[in-house]
Amino acid sequence: REKLSVARLQREVAQSKSEGAMREKLIHELEEERHLRLESEKRLREVTLESERSRAQMRGLQEQFSRMEETVRNLLQSQGSPGQHGEGTVNIMKVYQEKLSEDSRRCKEGMEKIHTLADEDSRSESSSTEEEKEKTKLLLERLKALE
Fold first, then answer.
1. Residue 46 and residue 125: Cα distance in Å, rounded?
2. Which pLDDT value is given to residue 111?
3. Compositional bias (Basic and acidic residues) at which positions (predicted)?
4. What radius of gyration do the chain's Cα atoms show?
């Protein structure tokens, strides 16, 4: 009889030790998930800020572009008819157009890069969020059962 009760107590001790180990593992996994979520949220905030900065830069470039166009129009009007200074006007127009198209191209590339980064981040965030929610739910259920 004593041997049976000792064996039973030993099994209970072994079971509680394994439950304690599982509980520690679950706590560690939960902490890891929290850390990953916080890192993802931080990255999302950074990308959002960068996107806002780029939008502001784009607006500034568009305003600069408009001012440059207005300046070219004013120069053309002040120089008189195109026949008088046609070659000089054409050269000025070409330089402005090249500069404007280069600025516009750089700005578009920057915005595309930011949108690509934001899309990738939000896609990975949403897919990992669903997985994380499911894992967290399962871990919490297991933790409650262990408690």
1. 14
2. 67
3. 1-11
4. 33
Pair 140, 17: CB distance under 8 Å: no
Quote the pTM value: 0.43
Length of the chain: 147
Residue corresponding to tokens 């590339």: 109
The residue whose two tokens read 């002040």 is: 78
pLDDT at 65: 87
Location of structure tokens 């568009």: 62
